[in-house]
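Preliminary data (for renewal application), zinc ion complex.
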Amino acid sequence: MPELPEVQTVLSTLEHMISNRKILSVKVLSPEVVQMNPDEFSFRLTERHFLGFKRRGKYLIFEMEDCALISHLRMEGKYFVEKSTDPIRKHTHVIFHLDDGTDLRYHDVRRFGRMELIDKSTDYSEFHGLGPEPFSKEFNAMYAWNCTRKSKRSLKMTLMDQSFVAGIGNIYADEICFRSGLRPESRVSKISKARWEVIVQCAVDVLSEAISHGGSTVRSYTSSLGVTGLFQLQIDVYGRENQPCHICGTPIKKVRHNQRGTHFCPVCQRRL
Ligand SMILES: [Zn+2]
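Predicted structure:
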């Protein structure tokens, strides 16, 4: 599932490709993806321009003249920018015909992704119950310590809780735990304010490094693979079971934690 850095990369890529393009018409092939009457969805977007590109948590926000199109990719959603004359791929659910002879096409094999239209004046600070953005000043050690000192949950589950902090999923939760030197299953109630300073900084570092890695590929991007935001990430633990730890060489371990595949170095990370 795309997480904050991938969503940010998709957003930057699309901004580069379709900024200020006018939508001539919209074709909804799978009504459940747009969460409203497809005719109304099309009507409200026709003749509008892609004016602003924002992100909140894992949501893409495309600002038009009088509304905003919100898109969540969930598991496998991706966008293609193709010529309007190109054949339409299987699993394409929404097509935006643009004024330069191209289409923005939403593709999703599992059809879990969702779009919605909201008022342009919507306050995104509490949008969909999301907690603060990792890069905002609201996400700090004092906030984290206050939220968690009585919690029975683990560090990993807390980092993945979108109401605690927005945008982190399974991959980056494991990476942030590694960078912080703590096991994912560590109890958050045992984490001191001083240690939260470290974890917050690690979260910011891990996510911004991933964004800058993805961002460097934006301009050379070819749309034939779809805009997924998934590039060669600099990963320390996720998906590296039995491979040597980048710091100490010990094989990375994989366990199941709350039904999620969870990776850590048994030497570099300690359990609280
Ligand atoms: Zn190690």
